[in-house]
TrEMBL record:
Family assignment from sequence similarity: Belongs to the SELO family.
Cofactor: Mg(2+)
Entries under Pfam families matching the protein: SelO
Signal peptide coordinates: none
Source organism: Isoalcanivorax pacificus W11-5
InterPro entries in the record: SelO (IPR003846)
UniProt GO MF annotations: AMPylase activity; ATP binding; metal ion binding
Protein name (Swiss-Prot/TrEMBL): Protein adenylyltransferase SelO
UniProt keyword list: ATP-binding, Magnesium, Metal-binding, Nucleotide-binding, Nucleotidyltransferase, Transferase
Length: 485
C-alpha cells in the first residue's frame, strides 16, 4: 500500500508543491482511482532543469538534497505519495488507425495530482507505474528504450519551441519487461497543462452524456484563460487553431509523431505520447516510424490529414452542444491555417524575413531538392545558412546535398533563391545570423538515441544528461557536447 510522505520538515522542496484535485470534480465515468504499483528503482537516471523551472523548483536543491532525491525515487517506485495526491487513471475512447475503440484509457499512466502554479495548472503524470483498470492485456510498464525516446524527444521539441508535454525525471527499475527483447523497465514523471484528448470526448459521446461533455469543456477554461469557462464553440475554435499550429510546427521541423490515433491527440495542441516518434534525418515524406503503420496513415506527409480527421471526430462529439454546421465552419479554415504556419516557418528557416508571393514555390522547390537525393533535412538548412553568393559556394552546396557539383537542379533552385534574396533588405551576414537562430545544430538522431540507450543499460546516464542539455539548447554548438557531428 502506498503511504503518504509526512511533512517532516520544510527543506524538502516536493512538499511545497500546491497540489489540487481538479479531475476528481469531473463525472466518475472519466476516471478511476488507482494507486501506482510498487516497483523498486535501480537508478534515478535524469532530472530535467527545464521541467523543474516550470514547477519553480531549484534544480540544484532537487538534484543534490538527499531528502529530495529520495522523495523523487519514492514517487517513481510507487512507494509513497505527496500529501494531496490522489492518483487516478483517466478513461477515454479513440479511433485507432481509423477504427473506433471504446475500450481505451490510461493503461500505463496515472495522474498523481495537479499542481496549481501561478500561470496555470500542471498535470503531474507517472508513466509506467503499473496496471490500471484500463490496461487490458498490457502490463502497465514502460520499457527503457521507449522512455528514453519520449524523454529526449520531448526536450528536443521544447528546445525548438514546439508545444509538448515535458518529462520531469526518468528512473530505471530493477524489474525487466519483454518488448522486442528483454529490457529494463523505466518510469517517467511528466508535466503538461492538461492531458485531455479527443478520445475523452469520444467516450462521452459514445455514452450519450451531454452533461459530462459540458463539464469537460468547462474544466478546460483555465487552459485558455477563459473566465468564466469557455463554451463549446469557443473551445473548438481554440482547439482547431492550436492543433493547426502544432502540426504545422511538426512539418517545419521534421518531426514525425508516429501514432496519431485520436486518443493520442491533445485538445490543447500539445504533443503527447510520442514514444514511437522520430525526427526526420534524410528528407523522406513517407517516413512512418511506428511498426504497425504499414500503410503510412501517420507518415510525415500525412500528419495534417490525420489531425484534421481527429478534429472532424471532435466536431461530431460536440454536436449535442453546438450545431454541427457552426463547428464545420470553424474546421473549414484548418488546412489554410496549417499551410500559412508552415510557409511562415519555412520562410524563416530559409533566411527570408519578408513575405513574397513566390515563397510557396521556392519552399516547394527546396523540398523537391532535398527529396531527390534524400538529403539530411536538418543539415541541409545549415549548409544553406553557410552558402555564399559565388560559384565555389554553389558547387559546395550541391556536393553537400548529394548532387554532383555541376548538377542542374540545385543550380536552378539557387538561381531562384539568389533572385529572391535580392528582394530582402538584409545583408548576407544578417541572413546567416538570422538562420543560425532558427536552424538547429542538434536534433534527436537515432544513432544518438542508441548511444544513450546502450549507456543507460550499463548504468551510465552521463550521455543522457549531455544529449538532453544539447537538445534544449539546439541552436548553438556546445563544445563539450559528446554528440557533435
Amino acid at each position: 500500500m502506498n503511504m503518504l510522505l509526512k511533512r517532516a520538515g520544510t527543506m524538502n522542496p516536493w512538499l511545497s508543491l500546491p497540489l489540487v484535485q481538479g479531475w476528481q470534480q469531473l463525472p466518475p465515468t472519466l476516471w478511476s482511482a488507482q494507486a501506482p504499483q510498487l516497483s523498486p528503482v535501480r537508478h534515478l537516471g535524469d532530472v530535467s532543469p527545464a521541467a523543474l523551472r516550470l514547477l519553480q523548483l531549484d534544480a540544484r536543491q532537487v538534484r543534490t538534497d538527499a531528502a529530495s532525491v529520495e522523495t523523487l525515487r519514492a514517487l517513481h517506485s510507487g512507494e509513497r505519495l505527496l500529501p494531496g495526491m490522489a492518483p487516478l487513471a483517466q478513461k477515454y475512447a479513440g479511433h485507432q488507425h481509423g477504427i473506433f475503440n471504446p475500450m481505451l484509457g490510461d493503461g500505463r499512466a496515472l495522474l498523481l495530482g495537479e499542481v496549481a502554479m501561478p500561470l496555470g495548472r500542471l498535470d503531474l503524470y507517472l508513466k509506467g507505474g503499473g496496471r490500471t483498470p484500463f490496461s487490458r492485456n498490457g502490463d502497465g510498464r514502460l520499457g527503457l528504450r521507449a522512455a528514453l525516446r519520449e524523454y529526449l524527444a520531448s526536450h528536443a521539441l521544447y528546445g525548438l519551441g514546439i508545444a509538448t508535454s515535458l518529462p520531469l525525471s526518468l528512473c530505471v527499475h530493477q524489474a525487466r519487461v519483454l518488448r522486442t527483447r528483454l529490457e529494463p523497465a523505466a518510469t517517467l514523471l511528466r508535466l503538461a497543462p492538461s492531458h485531455v484528448r479527443i478520445g475523452h470526448f469520444e467516450w462521452l459521446h459514445y455514452r450519450r452524456d451531454p452533461q459530462a461533455l459540458s463539464a469537460l469543456v468547462a474544466s478546460l477554461g483555465h487552459c485558455y484563460g477563459e473566465t468564466p469557462a469557455a463554451d463549446a464553440e469557443t473551445f473548438f475554435r481554440h482547439t482547431v487553431l492550436r492543433c493547426a499550429q502544432l502540426v504545422a510546427a511538426w512539418q517545419v521541423w521534421g518531426f514525425v509523431h508516429g501514432t496519431l490515433n485520436t486518443d493520442n491527440l491533445s485538445v490543447l495542441g500539445i504533443t503527447l505520447d510520442h514514444g514511437t516518434c522520430a525526427f526526420m534525418e534524410q528528407y523522406q515524406p513517407s517516413l512512418a516510424p511506428a511498426h504497425d503503420d504499414t500503410g503510412g496513415r501517420y507518415a510525415f506527409a500525412a500528419q495534417p490529414q490525420a489531425v484534421a480527421f481527429g478534429l472532424r471526430v471532435l466536431a461530431q462529439c460536440l454536436a449535442p452542444l453546438v450545431p454541427l454546421p457552426r463547428l464545420q465552419a470553424l474546421l473549414d479554415g484548418f488546412d489554410s491555417q496549417v499551410e500559412n504556419v508552415i510557409l511562415c516557418g519555412m520562410r524563416s528557416r530559409l533566411g527570408l524575413m519578408m513575405s513574397r508571393p513566390e515563397d510557396a514555390s521556392l519552399v516547394a522547390g527546396w523540398l523537391v531538392l532535398l527529396h531527390r537525393h534524400g538529403a539530411d533535412y536538418t543539415r541541409a538548412f545549415r549548409v544553406l545558412m553557410s552558402w555564399g553568393d559565388n560559384p565555389a559556394a554553389d558547387a559546395a552546396f550541391a556536393r553537400a546535398l548529394g548532387f554532383a557539383p555541376e548538377a542542374i537542379l540545385p543550380a536552378q533552385w539557387l538561381a531562384s533563391y539568389r533572385q529572391r534574396l535580392q528582394q530582402e533588405s538584409s545583408t548576407e551576414r544578417e541572413r546567416q545570423r538570422f538562420m543560425a537562430g532558427v536552424n538547429p545544430v542538434y536534433v534527436l538522431r537515432e544513432q544518438y538515441l542508441q548511444r544513450v540507450v546502450d549507456a543507460a543499460e550499463e548504468g551510465d546516464f552521463q550521455p543522457l544528461a549531455s544529449l538532453r542539455r544539447c537538445l534544449t539548447q539546439p541552436f548553438q554548438k556546445i563544445d563539450a557536447c559528446e554528440f557533435n557531428d
